[in-house]
Design goal:
This protein is α/β, with parallel strands linked by helices and 416 residues long. Helix content is 39%, strand content 18%. Strands 5, 6, 7, 10, 11, 12, 13 and 14 form an eight-stranded mixed sheet that branches.
Length: 416
Amino acid sequence: MTSSIKDPKNFPSLRNLQYSPLKEGEEQYILLWDPSRLSSEKLVIPLNFFFLFQFFDGDHSIEQLGAEYLKKYGEFLMPDKLSQLVSDLDDKLFLEGERCDQAQEAATAAYRNTPVRKAMFAGKSYEDEADTLREQLGGFFDSKEGPEKKPSDNQGKKIKAILAPNYEPKEAGAIYAWAYKELKEAQTPDVFIIVGTCHSELEHGIAVTDKDFETPLGVLPVNKPILEHFRANGGAQFFEQDIRHEQEHSVEFQLPFLQHTIGSQRPITIIPVLCSFPVETLADAELKPLFEQIDAFLVALKASIAAIGQEVCVIGSASLAHIGLRYGDNKPPTDFSFHRCMQTDLEMLKKVEEMKPEEFAQFILEEGDKRHILGFSTLFLLMKLIEAEKAEVLRYDRGITDQFNSTVTYASIAFF
């Protein structure tokens, strides 16, 4: 929200940024970047400057920031250094204000004028040529970490949903393959709702786009009849932040696997959805308006699917726990702490296997979300969209994300 009353250069308000610790020799730094990718810039700052960011809330002046620094470190921070930091943040579009608002409006207009949503991560997270991508995808299924060669126990059954990681496909592709093997061998409809985790804030908790998605394997069209009905019957607000789809990887990572397993056999359409809302949405009275918006989304989308008369299958794209310095913990994970996290993850996923979304949420609430379950909103929304009798965790694994052993866990799950 733009700070229109107070001068944003004197009362800086930091946007929702992500950060990662860095170490060079004995010196520690923080790397900052914009998860929405409105800004492609990065900024490295000393650890003592990072302390001040908790006060970049639009209510503390530069003078007050200097006072907080003095209180913490016992030394003065020269006003020109603080002013330079604020100027650097503003130049990189890391602060709320007029420059950020104008950039957001221009980016949204440009996105809506594009004919398709381009493949933003081809050549980075997976191969960018069709033949080499098919070879890469086949390798995930054939690798020793990939799914068993024998037919699935659920072969030929109607599948309601799958969950796959939203981690880098080039690293976690074999875990994706476990879920997509189930999809390939089951009975599936021709419409797939892709529910991805958004890594930046969403005003309504959910963002839908009506852009077709392009990958090296071709264009996956959206289901226009369902989306048009949804927009006209209670869903219009959920298109307001459709630009979040432009730079978000969560939906895109699923599409080559979907094209490889199903789309190569027959025409299919998709409904791309991003979601981001905290588990507290279900329990905090102050978040009741957001909870009501999530419920309104579910009601409107289900009604549109019923009105058009098409069956759908849901594909969730999510990770689970995020542990370590990069995610706000005060020390790196050890083998012991990872195994304890894995046991807790699998206990939590029992609620998913039993198709109990509220108990799944309660599990996270009771542990204070201390393991930072980023995929909560995706898994919760997936379970509320379908009517399944059971789910099965097929495979579980983790990825290391920095030099401090920060860890992300993820799983493949099938819902029948």
